[in-house]
Specification:
- By secondary structure, this protein is of the alpha/beta class.
- The protein has one domain (about 5-20, about 30-250): Rossmann fold (3-Layer(aba) Sandwich), CATH 3.40.50.
- It contains eleven helices and seven strands.
- It has helices at about 10-20, 25-35, 45-50, 70-80, 90-100, 140-150, 175-180, 195-210, 210-215, 220-230, 235-245, and strands at about 60-65, 85-90, 105-110, 125-130, 150-160, 185-190, 245-250.
- Strands 3-2-1-4-5-7-6 form a seven-stranded mixed beta sheet.
- α2 (about 25-35) runs antiparallel to α8.
- The model has no long low-confidence stretch (mean pLDDT about 95).
C-alpha cells in the first residue's frame, strides 16, 4: 500500500516537520496541554496521567504506543516508570525524531496498523490515543492488539466520535464498545466529552496568545488549523455534545 494514499498521511508528515522546528508550537503545547508531547489532538497531562495509573508497579515493564508520533508521550511514561518503550507510526518524520530523542531502552518503527507485527504476550501496556480509527478492520486489529498483551495487561484507548468515526447514540453504541462486547472483552469506559470541550476551548484561547509567534515563524497555516479545530467551542456545550463524544477505554486482558 502506498502510504501517500492513507488517511491524513501527508498532513502528518507536514505536521511533524513543523513540530520539530516551531518554538511557538512547543510553547502552545505546554500552555494548552500541560506538557509538550507535540499534540495534534487531546492528549493533555490529565489523560496521560490516567495511563500512568494503569501501569503495574514492577520491574521490566514494556509499553507500546500505536501511532506514537515523535515519541514524546512514550518518553514521559518512560521517565515516570523506567519502562522499555516501543512505538510505531506511518510518518517517517515522526519516527526519525523519536529515534533521535529517545535512544535508551526504546524501539521505534515505521509501520501501518494492520500490517505491523509484534510477538504475542510482549507488552504490559499498549496505548492508542486517537489512532485506532486508522485500522482497515478495527475488530481484527483489536484482537491482534489483545494478542500482543501479557495476561493482566491493559489496552488504553483515547476514542472520539463525530470526526473520523461518526457520532452514535451513546457509549454502548460506539463501534469500539460493540467490538469489545461482541468478543467478551472486559473494559471500563469513561465519558470525557465535557473535559474535551473545555480542553478545546483552552486550545483556542492559548493559540490566540501565540498567533503572532506562529506568523513570525511562517506557520500561520498551523494557527489557522488550530482555529478551525476549535471553532466548535464557539457554540454551547449542549450543542457540541450532540455532534461529538470522547471516551477513554481501559481494556483488560
Amino acid at each position: 500500500m502506498d502510504k501517500k494514499d492513507l488517511l491524513f498521511y501527508q498532513a502528518y508528515e507536514d505536521f511533524y516537520a513543523m513540530a520539530c522546528e516551531s518554538k511557538a508550537f512547543e510553547l502552545f503545547c505546554k500552555d494548552a496541554f500541560g506538557a509538550d508531547f507535540s499534540q495534534d489532538g487531546f492528549s493533555d497531562l490529565h489523560q496521560i496521567d490516567m495511563i500512568l495509573q494503569n501501569i503495574p508497579e514492577k520491574d521490566n515493564i514494556h509499553i507500546l504506543d500505536i501511532g506514537c508520533g515523535n515519541g514524546k508521550m512514550l518518553g514521559y511514561l518512560q521517565k515516570k516508570t523506567g519502562a522499555k518503550i516501543y512505538g510505531f507510526d506511518y510518518s517517517s518524520n515522526a519516527i526519525k525524531k523519536a529515534k533521535e530523542l529517545f535512544v535508551k531502552d526504546s524501539e521505534f518503527k515505521e509501520g501501518l496498523i494492520g500490517e505491523i507485527e509484534y510477538p504475542k504476550e510482549k507488552f504490559d501496556l499498549i496505548t492508542s490515543m486517537d489512532t485506532i480509527y486508522f485500522a482497515p478492520d478495527m475488530s481484527k486489529f483489536v484482537l491482534q492488539v489483545m494478542s500482543w498483551l501479557k495476561t493482566n495487561g491493559i489496552f488504553f484507548v483515547g476514542y472520539q466520535e463525530g470526526d473520523v468515526i461518526p457520532k452514535t447514540e451513546n457509549v454502548k453504541t460506539a463501534v469500539l464498545s460493540q467490538i469489545l462486547d461482541n468478543n467478551n472483552i472486559k473494559y471500563q469506559v469513561y465519558d470525557i466529552t465535557k473535559q474535551t470541550y473545555d480542553l478545546l476551548a483552552k486550545k483556542r484561547e492559548v493559540a490566540l496568545l501565540y498567533k503572532n509567534d506562529f506568523e513570525k515563524e511562517g506557520h500561520k497555516d498551523w494557527f489557522d488549523l488550530l482555529m478551525m479545530q476549535t471553532e466548535c467551542t464557539t457554540e454551547p456545550f449542549d450543542s457540541f455534545k450532540k455532534k461529538m463524544a470522547r471516551y477513554i477505554y481501559v481494556i483488560n486482558k
